[in-house]
Specification:
single chain; mainly alpha; Cytochrome p450; two-stranded antiparallel sheet; 6 strands; globular; binds protoporphyrin IX containing FE
Amino acid sequence: MTIADPVNEKVLPEDFIPPYPFRFETMPPVWKLIGMAKKNFLAIWGVEDFRGRLRSRKVFTRELVVCNRPDVVREAFQANHETLQRKSPQMRHALEPLLGDGLFVSDTETWAKRRKVVAPIIHGSRVPGFAPIMVDTIVEKRAEWAALENGAQIDALAEMAHLTAEIICRTIFGRQLGKNYASEVVQGFSDYQKYIDQVDMISMFGLPEWLPRFRGNAIRKSKERILSVLDEIIDSYQAQKEAGEASVIGGLLEARDEDGNPLSRDAIRNEAAVIFMAGHETTANTLAWTWYLLSQSPRVAIGCATRSREASTGSSTNFCGLRPAR
Ligand code: HEM
């Protein structure tokens, strides 16, 4: 077995190659890969899996497909989404206890109906409206860092996870409630994600869908912790509305489907949990990588800083005024 070792590649400043996961040149046996996948799903691929436009591999009874190019991803997620839209059994079984029939887990008709109602609430065009919450939270984080002693080191990923969790909590639940409940919800989600299975062995072996999956007590406890906060927030929405506070959960409560019907209480709770899960780790990882990459290119870092200064007036940032740095 040989492994490509990016660390030993010659890296010149002008052709900087960011670190990337190990990739096998000769694939180890499937049973070994499954053991690895349970810990890190990115660690199980070979050199060719990263090069090919579209790759597929049979693992026991299931066929795994890797889409490597934007055009293939577009084909899977847009052009052919009706045929390919089924969520993976791993995702369904791992997340259903917490997310119920939320968008991450649902398929076909439930998904299509729900998506029409939820998509406008989190559409990109809503981002400028959430900018004041983002700026407030960033300013608080900046003050926290400014209070550290000179030369102090911070863990960029942990800090970004904290920042994006605060922002998503305040965005979903409203500024004040989000602030109060953020650490409770964040802890609940991080416990839940720690205990769920990364690989669904039952479906890998082609065994029936209905077979029960073993779930430990820790999963139940973290699920209850999250759901009780969501219930409390939904219950207190009226007061929040009267205080004039905008929030995603408010959008879900006010939303109506094509027939003019509101979402059920369970649906609101499920979609709020989906949006939290979808919007927090993804952005934290992206930001941590962004800081790392910027630290490797002072020219681009200076360009970004200039653009963001141009778009800022006092403490309020005009998101629409941001232009890409070159
Ligand atoms: C860099 C940031 C992000 C990345 C890389 C990302 C990536 C993805 C991917 C790959 C999926 C498809 C998952 C699947 O079906 O297997 C997805 C779904 C979704 N994401 Fe994101 N996401 C990001 C940020 C966000 C944010 C900020 C939100 C909301 C505030 C969000 C909300 C959603 C929702 C609701 C879905 C489910 C859509 C559906 O099935 O109809 N995402 N995201």
